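Sample A.
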Amino acid sequence: MAILKPKDHTKTRTMSFRLPADLLSEVDAIKAQAGAVGLAFDVSDVVHKALTSAVRQARQELGNTVSGQVENSPAPQPSALP
């Protein structure tokens, strides 16, 4: 068995965030259930794919902005001051 392995050229950084407790409980339960049958629920991969999709959508929405406003944004309300 080789001790030396090729370097992983993918640069990664840690990101932390908060989740609702009930969602995290579900994730933990799924990971345990998957592990019990010899499978893995790769949360990092799931988050990576979801964020990649969200970033693409955000870039598309930014590309569709007109005068700095996103199409789905509510129009600015007139000021109540004279």
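Sample B.
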Amino acid sequence: MRADASTWAVNSLLGKRPGVLLPPHFVERHSVDDVVVSRLSAPGVSHVLTFAGLYAALYPGVRRPIRPSARLASKARGAGSAPETFTLPNRAERLVIPQPIIETMRAMMASPKTSLQVKLSPSYDLTVGATSLSVTAVDAMLFPLDDMD
């Protein structure tokens, strides 16, 4: 089992058409409530690690993937490079925002005391703070009680 077996990336935060550029066998897709999520499959992880040098040379602005052993070693040194995770209420799956995306979101904030609301799905909003992430369930009531006969 992979070290990140329970960590998923939220599709709506990955781009307009996430997963389109990857072969289907490289990506696992799943839904957590109504939030569509993805992660690399075992063959996808193997491919990325095998060709990391080639991708770094072709796309110099993109960061090299961190090998799991390097990630554990950096945690031992106290480095804060681990991705930030969050969960939906009453769910066990850990969800993650890719580091370049969260850095862009935080750069858009006017001051450290402000926060940014991001729609994850029709039922959930993500609040991105300077140092925190939180999820709130959106009120799913379709009709106000006053209109009921």
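B remarks: Residues 70-79 have pLDDT under 50 and may be disordered. Helices lie at 42-50, 52-58, 68-76, 99-108.
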